[in-house]
Structures are given as C-alpha cells and as structure tokens.
Amino acid sequence: MTLHPEDLRVRQLGERRYDSPLADLLSTKQTSPHYVAEGDRVLLEDTVSMLAGHGLPSDQVPSFEAAGPRRKIYFDPANVTAGVLTCGGLCPGLNNVIRGLVQELAVHYGVKRIVGFRNGLQGLTAQHRDDTVELTPDAVRDIHTAGGTILGSSRGGQDADEMVDSLVARGIDILFVIGGDGGMRAATFLGAAIRRRGLEISVIGVPKTIDNDLPFTDQSFGFQSAFARATDFISAVAVEAAASPNGVGIVKLMGRHSGFIASYAALAANAADIVLIPEIPFVLGGAEGLLAHVERHVRAKGRVVIVLAEGAGQDLLEDHGLATDASGNLKLGNIGELLKDSITAHLTGAGLAPTIRYIDPSYAVRSIAANAYDSVYCLRLAHAAVHAAMAGCTEAAVARWRRRFVHVPLSLMTSRRNQVDPDGDLWLSVLETTCQPAEFGPARQRERVRAGFC
Amino acid sequence: MTLHPEDLRVRQLGERRYDSPLADLLSTKQTSPHYVAEGDRVLLEDTVSMLAGHGLPSDQVPSFEAAGPRRKIYFDPANVTAGVLTCGGLCPGLNNVIRGLVQELAVHYGVKRIVGFRNGLQGLTAQHRDDTVELTPDAVRDIHTAGGTILGSSRGGQDADEMVDSLVARGIDILFVIGGDGGMRAATFLGAAIRRRGLEISVIGVPKTIDNDLPFTDQSFGFQSAFARATDFISAVAVEAAASPNGVGIVKLMGRHSGFIASYAALAANAADIVLIPEIPFVLGGAEGLLAHVERHVRAKGRVVIVLAEGAGQDLLEDHGLATDASGNLKLGNIGELLKDSITAHLTGAGLAPTIRYIDPSYAVRSIAANAYDSVYCLRLAHAAVHAAMAGCTEAAVARWRRRFVHVPLSLMTSRRNQVDPDGDLWLSVLETTCQPAEFGPARQRERVRAGFC
Amino acid sequence: MTLHPEDLRVRQLGERRYDSPLADLLSTKQTSPHYVAEGDRVLLEDTVSMLAGHGLPSDQVPSFEAAGPRRKIYFDPANVTAGVLTCGGLCPGLNNVIRGLVQELAVHYGVKRIVGFRNGLQGLTAQHRDDTVELTPDAVRDIHTAGGTILGSSRGGQDADEMVDSLVARGIDILFVIGGDGGMRAATFLGAAIRRRGLEISVIGVPKTIDNDLPFTDQSFGFQSAFARATDFISAVAVEAAASPNGVGIVKLMGRHSGFIASYAALAANAADIVLIPEIPFVLGGAEGLLAHVERHVRAKGRVVIVLAEGAGQDLLEDHGLATDASGNLKLGNIGELLKDSITAHLTGAGLAPTIRYIDPSYAVRSIAANAYDSVYCLRLAHAAVHAAMAGCTEAAVARWRRRFVHVPLSLMTSRRNQVDPDGDLWLSVLETTCQPAEFGPARQRERVRAGFC
Amino acid sequence: MTLHPEDLRVRQLGERRYDSPLADLLSTKQTSPHYVAEGDRVLLEDTVSMLAGHGLPSDQVPSFEAAGPRRKIYFDPANVTAGVLTCGGLCPGLNNVIRGLVQELAVHYGVKRIVGFRNGLQGLTAQHRDDTVELTPDAVRDIHTAGGTILGSSRGGQDADEMVDSLVARGIDILFVIGGDGGMRAATFLGAAIRRRGLEISVIGVPKTIDNDLPFTDQSFGFQSAFARATDFISAVAVEAAASPNGVGIVKLMGRHSGFIASYAALAANAADIVLIPEIPFVLGGAEGLLAHVERHVRAKGRVVIVLAEGAGQDLLEDHGLATDASGNLKLGNIGELLKDSITAHLTGAGLAPTIRYIDPSYAVRSIAANAYDSVYCLRLAHAAVHAAMAGCTEAAVARWRRRFVHVPLSLMTSRRNQVDPDGDLWLSVLETTCQPAEFGPARQRERVRAGFC
C-alpha cells in the first residue's frame, strides 16, 4: 500500500461552528489504547519494518515479536513430548484450543506424544501427574462442539518445583498452559523454576479470560461467545420487566474487575437502561444516585433493566469479603442481592412496588461452546502457540494485538489488567445507548434521558 | 503503557537447529497487511502522538483521521435534515446501522428530521424521491431483530446530478450511504457533484460488503454473522457426505473476488477438506490437479467436502459470462455446477460413483439478522458516522482499522480490494486445517494429507 | 380407513419365556391417560361417529365437542367487539395466541373492534378498564417474534361483578382469557356472573401453563419451547460438573406441582443423573436416600447432575412457607438451596468436597419466543378459540386432546391437575435414561446404575 | 377420570343465527383422521379397556397393540445379538434412535452384542455383511448431537434371501430397520423370508420419514426439527423479497407426495403468501390461475413469498420424469425451476420485472440434529422398539398414534400414505393464514385476500 499522508486526508465542509451536545462527555479524553483523541491520527502501518521506511528508529520503539511458523525450529519434532493443561474458570473455546494444539503438533510437526494433564495445575502435582489423558487427533476430533474442557480444570497454586519435577518425570519438552490470571502467574513461576534448573523445557501460555481483562489482547478467546450468550439473559429480564407493572429486570454478569461483558452485552442486546461496571463507582442514595434514577425511569417508562458486572459497586458492600479464594482472587460480595433489596425497598417506598426479576446466568454463559468467530480465533491462536513452542520460545504467551498474532513475555500478561476505560470509546457508546448519566453520584453530569428512545 | 523495547523481548531457549516441516510454505512470505515476516515486529502503539515520542516524524507517515465525537461541530443540529439509504446486496446488520444512525442523530444530537430513501440510489431519482420513509427512534426501535433492510435496496447507477437535485429538493444536509463497492463509487461521484455545485451537504459512506473485500477495514460489518451462518451449510453437506458411500459435499459461498467467507467458514466448521477461492487459481486435471486430489481423498476417507467461493476458478469456465450486471459487476459463471459435473464424471470414471450434495445457500446467509458482535459493531460504526457528519466531514467513509474507528476518503474505499493473501497467515491456517496442497496444479507442493486427522 | 381388527394384529415369534429385567418396574401399572397396560389396546378411531359403526352407544360415552368453524354462527361479525387479556406467569406463545386471535377475528370474520386489556384481570377493574390497547392486524403483525406478552400480565383475583361491569361498559361481546389455573378459575367465575345477569357475552379460555399441569390437554402451548430451552441449562451444569473434581450440577426448573418440564428436559438433554419431581417424594438420608445415591454416583463417575422441579421435595422443607401468593397459589420453599446445602455437607463429610454449580434459569426459560412447533400450535389454538366464540360457545376452553382440537367446559379445566404419572410411560423413560432408582427411600428398588452408560 | 357425558357438555349462548364467512370452506368436510365434522365428538378415552365399560364390544373394533415393556419376554437377553441399520434419506433423529436402541438393549436388558450394519440394506449383502460397527453405550454416547447417521445409509432394494443369509451368518436375533417407505417395504419382505425359513429372528421397523407421509403416526420423528429449520429459509426469502422492488421469494421444501413440511413451516414462519403442495393441484394460467394471483399480490404488496413442496404441480411438468430411482421412488421434475421461469416471464410481461430469490435448502434441513422434542420422541420410540423386539414381536413397526406408543404390522406401514387432507383442519389453517384461494384454477373460490394482513 504505497499511500502518501495526503491520500488519507478527509475532506471537511468548513469550520466547525457549534458546540456539540456531546462536548461535556469529551472533556477528559486523551489518546490511550481505548481512545484516540481529537486531532491525533491512527497509523496506516503497524510493523517496525513498515515504519522504518518512514523514519522510525526501530530499536527504540516498543514492539512485539510476531508469532507464526519459523523456517528453523528448536526442537526435533520426532522426539518431542508436549503437555497441555487448562486451569481457572470455564470459558468458551478451551476445547478448541486443545484441539488446535494437538492438530498442529501431530499433523503438521509430526509430534508423536501429547499428554493432557487433568484438572489444571493440580495435574502437575506428584500425586496426580500420572493421571493423564493421551491426546491424539482422533481423540480431539469433535471436542470443540462441546463447552467446558475435556481436561478438567481447577484453581489454586501448586509448588513450582514439584511441578517441574512432574514435567521432568514425564519427559515433557513443551508445556502449554491454557489459563487466566492465576494460570499465567503460575506459568511464569514455572518457567523461572525451569530456567533456574537449566532445563530445556518450553512453557507457553495461552491466555484465557472470559472477562477480557488480560492486557495486550484485542479480545480474549471466548469473549465474543460469552457476551453473545449473555445478551439472551438481558432480553429475558427485559421481556419480564415489560410484562409486569413496575417491572425491574436485573442481570448479573461476569466481570470481577472489568466490565467488558456487561458493556458489550448491553450494547448488543440494546435493552439495558443502566449498566454498572467495576470501573465506574456509583452511589445508591441521593438525588443523583442510582436509586433516584431507577425511580425516575420506572415512573417514566413503567420499567427498568439493569446490567451489572459482578465486581461493580464492591465498595458499597459493607461486608465486602476480603477473603481470597484458592487462586488468590478476591472474593466478591453479592452486589446483585444488594441492588435487588435496595431497589425493592426504594420503589416500594416511592409507591411503585416493583416486580423484580433477577438472574445470575454465569454458569450458563461460560459453559457454552465457542461460536464461529471464537472457533477460528482459538484455532489460529493454538497454531501460533505451537509455532512459538517448536521454535524454542519460552516464558511467553501468544496473543492478538491489533489483529496481529504476537508473542508477549509471560510476566507481562499479569503485570497489568485490561479494563473498560471510562474515557474510552466503548464506554462512550454504552452511555450513548443506555442514556444513563456518566456517573451516579453527587457530581454526575446533567440528566440525558430523553423522550422516545432511551 | 510505559514499556521499553526490552520489556517486550521474549525468551528463547537456544539456537534453532532443525528445519521446520512447514518451511516450504514460508518461502515467499513477507510483511504485508496480512502477514508479519519472521524477524519483523509489531508495534505496541498505533497513533501518531504515541509514536512521536519515539521519534516518528508525524507529518511524513500515512495515517487516518480518528473517528469519534468532536467538541465543535459543523451543523446546527436543530436545523439538520439527514437522509439515509441502503444499496447493493443484503448483508447482516443493515437495519442495525440504520437504527444506530437514527438513535444517535435524534437522541444525542437532537436532529428532528431523518428521511429514509427507498430502494437504494433509485430513491434519489426524480421519480422516486418523494417515496420516502420518516425515520424516528420509535420507528426503528426493533428493526435490528430482522435481517434485510427496512429501506429496501437495489443495484445500479443513477445520474449524480439528478441525485443532487433530489437532495436539494428534500433539503438534505447529510446523506448516509450504506452500500458496497457500487454504493461507495456512487457516493464518491455524488460528493464530487455536490462539491462542484458548492453545496454544503455532507456525504458519509458506511461501507457494506458481506465478502469483506473493501480495504482499510478489519472486517466489514455482517461478515462474522455471515460466515458463522455459512458454517451450518458446511456441516450440512459434511453430514450428508459422511452418510453416503463416496459422498461428496459442495457448498458454494459468497465471494466474487475475495475468499474470506469461504476461508473463515471452513476454519470455523472444521469439516472442509478443500477450500477454493478466487485468489488461488486451480487446475482440474492432471496428477496434481483438483480432480485427482478429490479422487485420492474419496478413496482414502470415503468422502470429501469442498467449500467454494463463487468467484473461484472463473478462468476454468469456458463460457465465463463477461456481461456486467446493473451495478457494473462482472457476472460470474457457475463454478459450482462445473465442479459438480466434473467431479461426478471423474469419480464415476474412477469406479467411485459418488453421491453429490451441492448447495448454494447465499440468500439464506446474507438475509439473517446481525449476531451479537456485529450488532455492537454496527452500532458503534453508526455512531462514528453520525459524529463524522455532524462535524462536517464529507466524501468520507467510516471504517475500523486495527480496532480503531477512522475516517477514510471515500475514493480510497474503491481504489483497491481486500483479498485473501496467498502468503498471509489466514490462508496458511486454512492450509494447516484442511491439509489440502498449497496449489492444485503442476507445480503444487508435496501432498500433505496425513493419516488420522486431515 | 376400513381396517378390520385382525389387520392390526402384530405377529409374535412365540411364547414369552423369560422374566424381563424390567419386570419389577411394571408391577403396579394399569391403563390410564399416561399408560396402556399390557394386554390392553389403543383404538384406531377416536370419534363418536367413527365408533358408532362399531357398536358404541354414542350417548353414554364421555366425549368432547369438536372445535372448528361452524356453518352458522351466533354473533354478527360486523357488530362484534372482542376483548383479549393475558394473565399469570409468562409462557412462550402468549403473543402468538394474541396475534392468531386478532388475525382470525379481523381477517376472516371481519370483526372491526378488538380491545386488549392491560396487565391481566387487573385490566378489567373499574380503575384500569380504559387503559386498553387497540389490537389490529398491523399492530400484532410481528409480535410473535418476541417472548412475553404485549398486553402485560398480573396475578391475583378481581371481583367478578366489577369485571362484568367493565365488559358491559366497553361493549364487549366476546372475551378471550389467556391464562393459567388462576385465569381459568377467574374466567369461570366471570362466565357464571355473566350468566346470572343474563348477558350475551361469550367467555372463552385459552389455557396457558408452562408446567403442562392443566388437564385435557396433550401438551400446553409453550411447553415444548420451554423444555427445549431448559435443556441448555442442564447441559451447562453438566459441562461445569464435568470440568471440576467432584462436580455437582443442579438445575431448578419450573414445576410447582407437575414435573413435566424437568422430565422432558432431562430426557432431551440426556445429561441428567437424577430427576426430582413433585409427584415422587424422596428421602435425603439413609442408605437408600438421595444423599447416599449422590455420594455413590460422585464416587463412581466423579460428578453428578441433578434436575429438580421447583415443587419437588416440599415436605422436606421445615419452613415450607404455607403463605399463598396473590393468585392463591401456595408459595414454595426453595428446595434448590436445601439440596445444595445438604449435598455440600454430605459430600464434604464423605471426603468428596464438591464444586457445586446451581442455577435457577426460570425467567430465562419462560420469557423466550415460541419455537416453530408452538407457533403453529398457538395459531391453530387461537383460530379454534375464535371459531368457538363466534359460534356462541361460552364458559369453555379450547384444548388439544389426543391431537384433536376440542371444547372443554371451563370449570373442568381447574377441576383436576395434569401430573407426571409415577406409573406412566414418561416416568418409566426417565428412569430408563437416568438409571436412578424408582424411589429414594427405605423401600426403594434395587440399585440399577450400571457400568458404562448411566 | 370418572366423567359423565354431560360433564363435558359446553355451554352455548343461544341459537346460531348468521352464516359464517367461512361457510364455503366447510361444505365438503366430514370426519376423518384429519378432521372432526360439526356435530361429531371426540372420545375422552382411547383404549379398549376404557371403552369396554361404556359398552364397546372390544373384539369388533380396530385397535393397536400397546407398545411398552412386558413382564415376560421371548429372548434371553444374555444370548441376544441385535443388529441395527438405517436406510433412505437423512432425517433428524437417526442417531438418537440408534443411541436409544443401544442404551436400552445394553443397559436395561443387558444385551452384550449389538452390530451396526453400514450403509443401509447394502450392509446386509454378502459383500458387505462383515463391514460392521460394534455398537456399545460408550460408542454412541454423544452421537445424538450430530445430524445424519453414524451407520451411513443408502437407497435401493437387496435380495431378501441374501439378507437373511447375512443375519444368520452374523447370528442376529433381532434386527432393527430404521427407514422410510423403501426400508419398511424391504423389512416386510425380509420378515416374510425369515418366516418362510422358520427362523426365530425378530424384525422391528422404526419408521422414518421426514415428509411425515407414513400412516398410523402422529408425526414422524425428525419432522418437527425439519419444519422448524425450514422456517428459516422461508424467513430468508421473505427478507430478500421485501428488500427488492417486485421481490419474489420461492422456497422448495421436501415433500414428494405430502405437503406437511411446507404446510407446517408456512404456518410457523407466517411469512408465506402461497403454499403449494402435492395434494392440491393447481393451474398456472387464466384469471384464476396461480400466475394471475401472484401478479395481483405483487401489485398490491410489492412482493410475494411462495412455499413449495417438491412434489407439487407434477402434472404441470411436461417432462415429468417417470423414471424411478434406486429405491423405486418416482423421480420428480423440478417444479421450482418451472415456477421461477413462469413467474419471471409472467411478471415481466405485466411490467413488474421481478427480483426472484429461489432456494432449495433440503440438504440443509434434513441433515440437522434432532431438536429437544424429537430427541425425547426418538428416545422413547427406540425404547418401545427394544421392548417389542425383546418380547418377541416381529414384522412390526413401532409408532405413535394419538400420543400412545403402539405396534403396527409392518405391511400396513406401506399400505397407504399419510397426506395433507384438503378437507382437514391443517390445510384450513394454512388457507386462513396465507389468505390464498382454496384452489388455483377455474373453479376456485372467491378471492379472499383482504386489506392489511394477508
């Protein structure tokens, strides 16, 4: 694409003369991974070699190693034993990734032995290391039609050295860890332990997070399947809310720290009146609080539909459960129940005794099979993981960054968290679609619920 | 993200010592929009402002104007009349875009009059310009649940000046053209005619192509819905082929010039043995030709499943119909029928009289409603289009480029075509999944069908 | 079909010599609406006129009036005003019935005025009687694509005479009540009140029950849609249970008094290990109790999936909440929570600390749109209801009895309840499929869980 | 249910005074399996024992043997070898039936050897009889999630004695033939040959017909899945037709001799304007012919949607292809193409040059997996087939008759054909829904297309 900067210039009718009605939503916005500020521009090209021709000094700019097959590889395929495990909560696509790994290893590289460890990292403990599944192309042929994982999963940390012992005992040359936060952290420790012991074992992470909260990842695999399924439940409570006087529908969706599923599902279903996510704190009481907004909405439209990420409003829960679960995740208090009770009390007090329909469909969302898009994505991600491993990469994750498959150092995958940017364009779209105020609380912006649509 | 280049360095176990079994697929590959060559790297950051800090001279590098709301706008919303039309073939998401435009115009900018022109550009002819639909938030509230377009569509070119007359007659300030190749070309001419006449009418294109063949677009809206639906038909003929001795399943999918739907659907369904696309010519006869491969496959596995883009193998059709349709598109000969007949003759001659199951499901694919992902995408694209128009952009299309919404000069949208790169990673994934040879013909590479999986 | 008894005789190879392994399941079975005993036979023909030729004295045998159009009708269509309302819980198909009524009344009979009363019987109170919706073919054209009811619903009884006053005030000649138990009872009272006042108003019930618990009905409309959707949730918890060590999946489905949804969904999903329904009491403790069976199952297979009707095991709930809701239905205690807690305690005590996945998807099941079968069924039922009303029937419900559409006196519809027959062939199929014991408790039959399948 | 005739009497407001607008549709109707005439009544009870108490002489009335388990059985399960085969075209549910047979035989009766013959009756030829599949509960556990048949299928007749030889050679005691017309006929011949040779082999048919054209069957398994899927294609062409000026959508569905799929799918989709089935001949030309009606419809509404059974209008095809296929079925000429061409010519001649969207989705309909209802139905039918066989029944089919499972002599299953009754209530519903005339031709009844809805 030999294009000159001026080729990409867009025509403008003339000077901009009017204040935009949306201007007050824009005041704090600047360029970020989730927003391009007014006046900034998006590069046509995205690789070091492409930009070098335009004067970019290639050694000073942060960039990712491209994923993909290499002409020369590190391992002799005929002598490789690969291991695979899945850990953390379920997510659509786990079986697709397993299947893609096995297909690529066996069919294209000719790897003969592929071992599936059962129930996540637990499968690498001394006690369980021999309870494995042999993974062959035949054994995995149709597994992608089912949700879940044929290998089982679990949460929680095991001793890195005990796990390395298992790898050595089983003669593993390459280990694929398909997992989330916890799994990537464990894989990082495992890789370090392997390095300390001078072993030539490649550890490759395939990051999994239904919440889409891992960094350096366009959208995590399974995310699209998950939010698509979640829309069904928003529609369900919207139908319920519409069928009862003062109907209130509440759906609690996944999202401990990041409200992506809630945001995308709400945009797709287009039936949500309020979206609450962990990134945007909210206040219940007061004239600008959530309850007053709910009341105004029910009074005006006869109903309200609320989509809630499980991690939203945690500060509101007096008993906010600081205990950690086996994987070291904070346990969340149940914001759904709190809202249900608060809204019932508030609306009843306001003479609008509601019919509340509350559902938490998480298991029914995360256990589905991958949709067509995620099937392709998982397959290609698995191929990339195999190429990385066979080429001798280690302590690396495969990821998709702005539609390119890349290698990311494992430790980086847990160094930060992907979240909905309150100043990004996704959240702006949510606000535009729900017409909810930018914030619920004393400082919130002017009410923008308008007649007819929102 | 303050990351240094070395932070993104991935660890390598050691020197790469073995030739990869995939090496011969890699010989010709170099960095392109569809591939990142070995050794090249993908930039972490993607905007001019982000890269400027790393020494990129911003005025010399091709880049897109970011889409999104502006603080100051060109039109006074209270006095704006907007027009909307859809043209070209059906595509999932048309109604979602219409709905998103109306919602954003009416609710957020407060535009009062939105006119829908019927049946595409035909609606801008003098004869039909008054046969319009009034578009209000109420009228479009639920239209996204249905496929097709509430405005109707048509193909074919109208006189640009007659169309400008209609816009003037109807007092249109902003025209949104949701259309494909033909529509974008017409919008370009229309914009030029408006410019020549010194009118202050903004023309904004929302590019639509179920084939995903428009440039500067990650994936066109409706594409994911379409290929997901297409997988059902691959599965259908795969089931049929498996249930009959010498079963041959053939699905002809959309794709006049670009085999994206065929490729993605084949990857998602994972039941295709052969994928044929316009970008990769193939030979029928000879030991390395398609028919011999089909025969070998049927002999080995008892069946074969072929996914075919409608534009594949056009050179093979003696009567290749060079007539153009009303939009100026080349008419394609029916490669599906040719294959059906050739394969029947060949296999019968080889003593493998086949049961052929051939289906062309195009209408059933393109007429569905948008899935959850495309629903969100269409909504955000529509919002971007409205922001562009209200800000006074014109002769521009809105597009998504590496996950950023951008403005692209309209004329560029038809200046080139997005195609499956035979050296890109998508096609590589197809080859890895189907195990078909890289080419059917004399020069094709060694057979890679292996036992057990492919 | 002129067939003689001997034409229908089936050939038998010879004398039956062996005891069936299933014999002990058969001991108590006799002919009933849900079972045909060994030796009994099913009639080829099913109408009075058909059987009269075979010597059946037609006036002594219980039979239903056939539904359908009549050559002569009672009302002058040109002067008829019809009313429609929906009451009770949501059920797939409500909008289809509304639509079918309006279509048949308006298009085929030419009725001009059709009034929709809002929010069930509440809409017939003096306070709300004027808050109505005008129902025209145009207004209802696409409503069947959505679940719920465009008329709204509510529970609870209103004064019959006040409701008659509303009918008179609004000039209603025909009232269609689409509702459940409570609705049919209210319609019965309403019909009686009309009769007492000598009014010529027809009251026709269209029985609605997602639980399939109304009598004289093959399967209530929406039932198939509902149990089909319910299978998704059984699959979900089955996937979850399979992915965790000692995984326990529990789904609580609708079914206050009748376990049809639980039974059918379990048969369709084919992933349930235990089905618990109101008709079959069960014991938790003891060697033959539910908990011991669950423990054995988890020990043998590593997991268990339980499908539970909400009304199952109510006797086990100490606090069994005898309060009645607004419609006079008994309020049920939450057997799902009880089971969850009991199983957790029991398995933990047995050294099998479980991962429990419990979901109550009721709102997500009952709010869906009707599937294809129910769409046809609702349409035909609505047509039958209109024919009945126009012919002057009153205090009648339309129903489908052994695949014939019939009229049933309204009072009969609430005189008994359709339940799963513990001695019927449906429950036998459930036992055959789950391999659960016929009963959980001291007297239960021998364990029949066998290797490999169950 | 001790109910007296008077309990079932429905109240009537008074004398019927007006001629029904529908009266002329009723003139020829009388009681049949598809209609209950005005004045006739439907029996509450349906078995010989139940009716005996009401004076029905049980030995003179045609009745079916009830299906179900028997206390005493003919075969010793420990020594039984069962065979299974599927023949004829694909139909949703084949794998469910196979799975249900294997489950019941192995788990409940303890049968050890179950042999699957491949590719239908071809699998019983001397040449192929050893190419079998061993069917175990494990092997069939998940096969119901896929369409088609794991055993393969074929059409066409084999020599009965050769097939008996195969059964003897393989030691088969029980053979289950899952097939259509051709399969039931072959099974009849096979049973007769076994009888002639004095062998103790049970032959049990499980009738399969996606067209629903076999007699003594409420609805054949797979039928509901099939017509549900077919509605998608009606919706597709309806969307297409609505999006083009003078849009004409045509869907050709299965139905060689019986228009059930076309009728039910049209009722469910509710988008069809014209339904054409084999049972109702039609005329193309003339003022009352189909083409004139199509023209009127397009002129009035701008579009028309036609649903067509493949066997409709065969008399119109000059070249009506009287050759028979391998199973002895008449080959049908392509009525879809004829209609497409005739309508194009007619409308073009009338100045309404159409956009025609024609699709024949048969393979995509018949290859799907069974839906939830059919899954339950297939399972129960398979259970009934096993009970019949183990009890020593032979030359019998299992069927569902008015919701009871019964045994039907095999020869009867092919003695007549189930068709849409032009005087039955199903076709009446189609006419009411489409508003098409009762017949296309000189004698057709008055036009009933009315404003607004039809």
TrEMBL record, chains A, B, C, D:
E.C. numbers: 2.7.1.11
Domain Phosphofructokinase: 82-388
Cofactors named for this entry: Mg(2+)
Binding site for ATP: 89, 155-156, 180-183
Site residues, Important for substrate specificity: 182
SUPFAM superfamilies associated with the record: Phosphofructokinase (SSF53784)
Stored HAMAP family: Phosphofructokinase_II_X
Oligomer status and interactors: Homodimer.
Name recorded for this polypeptide: ATP-dependent 6-phosphofructokinase
UniProt lineage: Bacteria, Bacillati, Actinomycetota, Actinomycetes, Pseudonocardiales
